[in-house]
Amino acid sequence: MKILVVGSWHPEKIKKYTLQAQELGMLLAERGHILVASPGSGFQGLVARAYRQNNGSEFIGYYPELKLMREFGENILTEPDTKIYTKQDYPTRNLLEIKESEAVIGITGGLGTLTELIASIYDYKLPTSFYKGSSDIIDKFIKRESCFAKKINYGNNINNLLDYLENTSAK
User: Fold this and answer.
1) 39 near 80, Cβ under 8 Å?
2) Confidence band of 147 (pLDDT split at 50, 70, 90)
């Protein structure tokens, strides 16, 4: 299954979730999933590094416009097997990643990650999981929006979050 990983690219936000990134990358590799993610220096890059270290089968990396990456100070952390150069801004790149995925899992993030989760659930009808407690913005949104809360698998056990994705039919 092609699973998109979403989350923050801010170093101070992801530092606390390094162990979760390592666990998620390892489990995605062990379970034979294809990883879809940004190859950048954020949470997705940490997951990709762990995925690669655990002999994951294929990492598909989506790049925004390279000039934007440089302007934001985002570096390539892990080279993907398949490189998709979208030549788009971050929001458009994010939608392209979602569109080509079969499921989405998120840990950390802010408004950008929230918009990815909303698009994955409502626009693309993908099974979607999020790691509870890793984002104040997303946690508050889930608590406030009961319709959204019913459509997302929300917890803090990565095995359970992946089990949900695997057991819920994709596209």
Assistant:
1) yes
2) confident
pLDDT digits (tens, 9 = 90+) for 6-40: 999 887 888 899 999 999 999 999 999 999 999 98
Q: Which fold has domain 2-109+126-167?
A: Rossmann fold (3.40.50)
d(CA 59, CA 3): 10
SS3 170: coil
Task: For 125-141, give one letter per residue: b (16+ CB within 10 A) or e.
Answer: ebbbbbbbebbeebeeb
d(Cα 17, Cα 11) in Å, to the nearest integer?
10
Please state the pTM of the whole predicted model.
0.94
